[in-house]
Amino acid sequence: MSRRKLVAGNWKMHGTSADLGEVRGIAEAARRLDGQVDVALCVPATLIHRAAEGVPGFAIGAQDIHMADKGAHTGDICAAMLHDAGARLTIVGHSERRDAHREDDTTVRAKAEAALRSGLKVILCVGESDAERDAGRALEVVTAQLRASLPSEGATAVNFAVAYEPIWAIGTGKVPVTHDIAEMHAALRATLVEALGEEGAGVRLLYGGSVKASNAAEIFAVEDVDGALVGGASLTAADFVPIVEAAAA
Ligand code: PGA
């Protein structure tokens, strides 16, 4: 099945209004390559409204949501609020949230379900630690994570994507060998088809972890890699646009 690639940036806790020019630069490239590649940018919550207003039609996303639709949750933001601010998608289950905020698969699943209920598309992250890979358990751990954090209903090829992000590759400059990426993506594809049937064959599987312009083409050429989730190299148009262009090529 042919799936159009999706390249999503994750700004993490970077960016203020001074950086909105970068959002415009990235959206401009996405417009130029419209129809060849899908592009999204997950900015800090504080920038979503201004970013979305500045680039109509371009997919601005959030990096996390609360699992409840509303309520007494000081400091948290629900899916409907993010949608109202202009977000069209959200990341859930990023390893930095799983680790620093102790989010387990059940929480991540509830967040994915809350996002879909509010009309936000979802990028669900999974990935193994270096200890798990060294122990030969990467495939087992990551497929189990995917099974346990998949929304129980509502996920389709249009509104749902999965990002495989080995934790040891995030922000480290280390990238798995292409054989290991291919092996993991094949296992995740099989898991998606098993869980979602036909739709699972169309869900995009992104790779994330130290993707940059210099390695993007090689990663995008790997079987079953349908795009990338990019952290550090998404912060400027100069770094990010060449990655988007590699996905469009
Ligand atoms: P990185 O981050 O591209 O800076 O390694 C990827 C991510 O955490 O999504």
Topology:
Elements: E1 6-10, H1 20-32, E2 38-42, H2 45-54, E3 59-62, H3 79-85, E4 89-92, H4 95-100, H5 105-117, E5 121-126, H6 130-134, H7 138-149, E6 160-164, H8 178-196, H9 198-202, E7 204-208, H10 213-220, E8 227-230, H11 237-248
Parallel strand pairs: 1-2, 1-8, 2-3, 3-4, 4-5, 5-6, 6-7, 7-8
Helix pairs in contact: 1-11, 5-7, 7-8, 10-11
The structure holds 2-phosphoglycolic acid (PGA).
2-phosphoglycolic acid (PGA) binds at residues 10, 165, 170-171, 208-211, 229-233.
Can you tell me the residue ranges where pLDDT is under 50 for at least 5 consecutive residues?
none
- The amount of beta strand, in percent, is 15-25%
Give the fraction of residues assigned to helices.
Answer: 40-55%
Report the end-to-end length measured between terminal Cα atoms: 18 Å
How many domains make up the coordinates?
1
Largest sheet: 8 strands, parallel, barrel
The rounded Rg comes to: 17 Å
Rounded average pLDDT: 97
CATH fold-level name? TIM Barrel
Q: How many helix segments?
A: 11
Compute the number of strand runs. Answer: 8
Query: Bound compounds, please?
Result: 2-phosphoglycolic acid
What is the approximate shape? globular
The run of helices and strands is: EHEHEHEHHEHHEHHEHEH
Provide the CATH superfamily: Aldolase class I
